[in-house]
Q: What sequence folds into this?
């Protein structure tokens, strides 16, 4: 089993047999050896072995048993172990900085390794597929280049042929004209011998016909063979060249061709050498049968090759597409020679007949023969001339077609040149990507496995992810939760379970993936039943509590995704908000340009992908495929247009970004302010501030800000926004802080502000080693204090330049912050002067550090920043109906009367509910439901008594859809049981006991105003004495535990009320119906005893109890009814009781008391206040230092990551 830390005891209690009858064996986290061995085994399926790998010296060793130097696989697995352990160390830093507990379990490591194997295989396959596409595209382009080169060669040859044909045609024309002129001159003389010549020509013509017919049969076969040879594809020829041991048909065909061409061959290598020559095909096409063929060669060819039954086109062509046409060509050449050999004698015979006819008739018919020859020649010239003209036109048409192809191909290649260069570079980078794939996938897998545990809108994100299927949203508090879970498991719908800080055990089988396969069905246990399980099922668990901690067994069975806001995301959000508010034109242009550039980039990637796809899908010669060429031209044109548009937007984007950067100071300020607010909870449990709380402040600064009204200068408006952001944050947040912590917040915000100041001075002030002293109380420490101060670099040479009388005034002045010696020059900025003053106050007048800190904060933000006025009505208007207002007060002080007063002033309906019983819980729920519908108010008192109800209330408020006028007030004492989520989801107002004896007595006397008018008249003075006692015992708590009390005893108004009841009881018993009684007749001993026991019941320290008894005895005395009786003695004359007898006289006396009483009123030494102020200063420094260190550690964590 895998119980959480505190779950073992419950398992032992519910299943004792597990521990009574079993051996308990503890397994902690896996050792480095176990992690390494598991990682090594699970990565065996992928190729991680590198024979030439040398491990760098910088690789850290995580597995202590690693053999050095490690192999490549061992190095990768060792890195996995190192990453796992490094995250454990990071978690320790995270716990120290944020107090968050994050568990890493072996399941995370297993997930890490599984993700690595999966990603490695996927990414390698993707890379290889991309490389194949690139290579095919590049090969097509290279092939096109070769084809264009061949076309240009062909074009040059055609041009030469055209020039030759033109010359021949001109020559024929001239000869034809000359012969015709001569024939006309000789025609008259040739008529007589024409008949004889006609007879002989008939015979000659018949012989010629036989010869021409034989030749006509052979020449087409030869031309057809040549055409077949010229159509031999390059890859087929390459295939023949690459054959090491060719088939018999291939060898026979190639031997025949080489023999016919006149080559002497001994083996296949010689044949390969001939075939590899560039002019191999050309030599075949240019073969001259009449010159190169002999009878001996003809006989050899017939005997050695043509007679071989294997030497046929069909058999050889099956063996090689290149050799089939070559067999045809060999056969045609041999047959052509046979015809030439046979026709030869016939030609000679024709010539002899012609010669004989001419010789016999030469003398008689010389002229006739000459005319006949001329006319025959003329006719032949005409035919040949027409043929030449036709051939010339054909060559011109073919040249035009080839030129068009060349021009289009050149344009295409030129336009694709950039893609070709990029693809070639991408192809070259393939090896680099493959070599870095191991590390890239390692980082990616680690991110997937671990990053969710560490640091933006979860439900919207899930709804986008599950848009194709219905997302079920529920919680463990939902009555139909089990049915909804069952439905999702059956039908494969995703389910989102909200507020899952604590998991229902019904999910154990689901999270453990305990499936069962039975008869083709997949089942899973849900409660006591087994139901069908759909593989499409997904479960999402969400919590809004950022402080929630999950046990290791939950961490190991789920994948965490942290949606809490980060500083960078807040900066981005703030920048967008301020641009929309201040520069909507720039924001719109910026958004449009970013969107446009994104669309352009996507479109370009798609076009490039289509370019490669078109090249990959083309078959054969792409120059012959018009569709491919047109597609490529269109795609390239579109890409060029988009590239042009992108270039044109870059200039505009640069201008927009320049304006945007001017508002980056606002974004950085927002991030800094929220970082301070986030860390305040380390000072007090109730200082919990949500992102929405901060955004409300930010939006109030941007919209409806009176300081921006009428201001049009953008720079001035920006500066106002920054300043008001800090001031409004302080004033609104200060209402939720104790008085002593307000200066702490002011110091932290001043430190976070973007204003120019020497922040190294703040570091010195916060430095623990720089000790703070109060020389006004201890002047003997002066020399030591100066010695230590001179060790500080910024003060080293400045202290001695101050006149002695200035130092004396500084050390003796009560308000020392007004008499700080000026150790700076005129060039020093005002804020740096304030910091130097603060440093001197710490070093020499620690009792005035808090006022000096206030003065520094005033210097940074303005003099009115600490003028915080609590206006509950304004708070009510600021918050929404779904945001409760929490009134938090110290124990014994109830601030709910402020709500009652506001209700009376605003004349609204408000229902008051007091917690402390089950009936109170039900009444509160009912009152909230009714008020949410009607728009009235609800005040629930003492909610600290019902922390469980508060948890359900926070979740209920999130789903409540109340009337806009509805408001919920919660009064509570400061208790750690108040849920963090409720505090973050409400507006917290902090209330303290009235500070000082005067304020305390005013409050306590006002509560007895109706009873103080009762007789006897001595009763009212007794109330005054009791009120003074109550104020003294409470005010002494400010000095605890050093001076006032040794412990922080929780004296409260109930003690005062009980003591007043005791006074009433005994006075009524003694006085009866009389209006006066003698002070000596009051039972003082009984009253002193009862009051001492009432207040002393909380004290468990003998010294403090004895001190309380002394205070009660000194104040509750019959001498207090004497004129000029001194309640308190002191060097300033002490404090005498008033002379009047009614409540008005006593209230007037209270009003005349000093606002801040001297310590002697409390029975403390005169310097007690100075000691208290010194302690408050040290506490202030300690708190600022604590939060600053947390902020610095947070920044360091980000830097480390």
A:
């Amino acid at each position: 089993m895998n119980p959480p830390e505190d779950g073992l005891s419950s398992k032992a209690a519910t299943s004792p047999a597990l521990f009574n009858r079993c051996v308990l064996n503890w397994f902690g986290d896996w050792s480095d050896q176990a992690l390494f061995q598991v990682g090594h085994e699970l990565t065996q399926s992928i190729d991680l072995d590198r024979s030439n790998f040398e491990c760098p010296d910088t690789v850290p060793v995580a597995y202590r048993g690693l053999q050095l130097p490690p192999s490549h696989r061992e190095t990768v697995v060792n890195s996995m172990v190192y990453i796992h352990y490094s995250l454990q160390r990071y978690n320790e830093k995270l716990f120290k900085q944020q107090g968050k507990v994050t568990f890493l379990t072996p399941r995370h490591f297993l997930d890490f390794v599984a993700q690595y194997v999966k990603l490695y295989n996927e990414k390698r396959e993707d890379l290889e597929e991309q490389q194949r596409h690139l290579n095919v595209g590049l090969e097509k382009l290279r092939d096109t280049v070769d084809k264009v080169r061949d076309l240009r060669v062909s074009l040059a040859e055609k041009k030469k042929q055209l020039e030759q044909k033109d010359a021949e045609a001109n020559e024929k024309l001239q000869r034809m004209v000359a012969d015709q002129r001569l024939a006309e001159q000789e025609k008259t003389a040739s008529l007589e011998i024409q008949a004889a010549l006609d007879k002989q020509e008939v015979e000659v013509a018949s012989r010629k016909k036989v010869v021409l017919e034989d030749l006509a049969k052979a020449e087409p076969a030869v031309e057809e063979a040549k055409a077949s040879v010229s159509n031999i594809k390059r890859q087929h020829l390459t295939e023949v060249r690459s054959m090491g041991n060719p088939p018999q048909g291939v060898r026979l065909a190639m031997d025949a061709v080489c023999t016919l061409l006149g080559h002497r061959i001994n083996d296949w290598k010689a044949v390969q050498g001939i075939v590899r020559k560039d002019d191999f095909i050309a030599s075949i096409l240019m073969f001259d049968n009449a010159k190169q063929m002999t009878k001996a060669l003809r006989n050899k060819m017939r005997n050695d090759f043509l007679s071989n039954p294997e030497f046929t086109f069909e058999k050889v062509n099956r063996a090689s597409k290149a050799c089939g046409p070559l067999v045809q060509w060999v056969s045609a050449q041999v047959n052509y020679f046979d015809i030439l050999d046979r026709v030869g004698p016939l030609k000679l015979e024709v010539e002899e007949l012609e010669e004989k006819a001419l010789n016999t008739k030469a003398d008689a018919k010389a002229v006739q023969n000459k005319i006949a020859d001329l006319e025959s020649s003329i006719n032949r010239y005409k035919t040949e001339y027409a043929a030449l003209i036709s051939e010339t036109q054909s060559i011109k048409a073919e040249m035009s077609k080839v030129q068009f192809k060349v021009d289009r191909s050149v344009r295409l290649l030129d336009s694709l040149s950039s893609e070709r260069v990029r693809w070639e570079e991408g192809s070259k980078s393939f090896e680099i990507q493959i070599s870095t794939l191991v590390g890239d996938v390692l980082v990616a897998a680690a991110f997937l496995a671990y990053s969710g545990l560490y640091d933006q809108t979860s439900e919207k994100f899930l709804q986008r992810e599950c848009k194709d299927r219905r997302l079920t949203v529920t919680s463990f508090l939902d009555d139909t939760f089990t049915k909804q879970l069952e439905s999702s498991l059956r039908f494969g719908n995703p389910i989102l379970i909200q507020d899952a800080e604590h998991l229902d055990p019904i999910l154990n089988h689901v999270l453990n993936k305990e499936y069962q396969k039975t008869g083709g069905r997949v089942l899973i246990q849900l409660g006591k039943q087994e139901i069908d399980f759909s593989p499409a099922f997904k479960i999402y668990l969400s919590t809004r509590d950022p402080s929630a901690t999950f046990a290791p067994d939950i961490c190991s069975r789920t994948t965490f995704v942290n949606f809490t806001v980060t500083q960078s995301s807040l900066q981005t959000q703030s920048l967008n908000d301020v641009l929309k508010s201040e520069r909507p034109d720039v924001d719109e242009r910026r958004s449009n340009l970013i969107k446009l550039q994104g669309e352009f980039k996507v479109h370009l990637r798609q076009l490039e992908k289509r370019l490669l796809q078109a090249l990959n899908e083309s078959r054969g010669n792409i120059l012959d495929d018009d569709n491919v060429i047109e597609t490529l031209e269109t795609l390239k044109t579109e890409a060029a247009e988009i590239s042009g548009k992108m270039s044109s937007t870059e200039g505009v984007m640069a201008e927009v970004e320049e304006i945007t950067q001017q508002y980056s100071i606002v974004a950085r300020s927002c991030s800094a302010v929220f970082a301070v607010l986030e860390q305040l909870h380390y000072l007090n449990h109730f200082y919990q501030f949500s992102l929405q709380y901060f955004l409300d402040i930010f939006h109030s600064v941007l919209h409806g800000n009176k300081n921006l009204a009428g201001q049009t200068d953008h720079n001035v408006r920006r500066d106002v926004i920054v300043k008001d952001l800090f001031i409004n944050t302080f004033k609104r947040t200060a209402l939720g802080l104790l008085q002593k912590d307000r200066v702490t917040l002011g110091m932290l915000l001043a430190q976070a502000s973007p204003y120019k100041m020497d922040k190294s001075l703040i570091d010195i002030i916060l430095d623990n080693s720089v000790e703070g002293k109060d020389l006004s109380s201890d002047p003997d420490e002066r020399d030591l204090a100066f010695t230590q101060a001179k060790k500080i670099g910024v003060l080293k040479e400045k202290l001695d330049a101050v006149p002695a009388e200035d130092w004396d005034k500084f050390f003796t002045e009560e308000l020392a912050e007004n008499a700080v010696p000026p150790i700076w020059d005129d060039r020093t900025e005002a804020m740096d002067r304030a910091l130097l003053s603060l440093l001197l106050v710490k070093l020499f007048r620690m009792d005035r550090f808090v006022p000096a800190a206030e003065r520094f904060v005033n210097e940074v933000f303005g003099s009115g920043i600490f003028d915080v006025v609590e206006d509950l009505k304004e708070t009510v208007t600021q918050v929404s109906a779904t945001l409760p207002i929490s009134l938090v007060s110290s124990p014994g002080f109830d601030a709910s009367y402020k709500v009652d007063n506001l209700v009376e002033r605003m004349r609204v309906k408000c229902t008051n509910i007091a917690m402390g019983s089950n009936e109170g819980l039900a009444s509160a729920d009912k009152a909230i439901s009714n008020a949410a519908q009607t728009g009235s108010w609800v005040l629930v008192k003492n909610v600290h008594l019902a922390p469980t109800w508060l948890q359900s209330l926070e979740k209920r408020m999130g789903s409540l859809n109340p009337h806009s006028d509805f408001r919920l007030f919660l009064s509570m004492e400061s208790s750690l049981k108040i849920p963090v989520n409720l505090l973050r989801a409400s507006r917290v107002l902090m209330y303290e006991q009235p500070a000082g004896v005067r304020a305390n007595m005013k409050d306590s006397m006002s509560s007895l105003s109706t009873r103080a008018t009762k007789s006897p008249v001595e009763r009212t003075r007794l109330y005054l004495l009791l009120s003074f006692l109550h104020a003294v015992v409470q005010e002494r708590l400010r000095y605890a535990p050093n001076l006032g009390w040794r412990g922080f005893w929780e004296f409260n108004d109930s003690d005062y009320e009980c003591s007043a009841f005791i006074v009433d009881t005994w006075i009524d018993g003694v006085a009866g119906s009389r209006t006066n009684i003698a002070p000596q007749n009051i039972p003082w001993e009984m009253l002193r005893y009862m009051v001492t026991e009432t207040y002393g019941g909380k004290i468990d320290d003998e010294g403090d109890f004895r001190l309380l008894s002394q205070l009660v005895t000194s104040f509750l005395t019959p001498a207090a009814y004497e004129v000029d009786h001194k309640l308190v003695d002191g060097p300033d004359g002490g404090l005498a009781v008033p002379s009047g007898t009614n409540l008005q006289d006593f209230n007037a006396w209270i009003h005349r008391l000093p606002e801040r009483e001297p310590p002697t009123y409390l029975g403390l030494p005169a310097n007690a206040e100075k000691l208290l102020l010194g302690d408050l200063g040290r506490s202030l420094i300690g708190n600022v230092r604590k939060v600053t260190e947390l902020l610095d550690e947070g920044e360091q964590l980000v830097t480390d990551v």
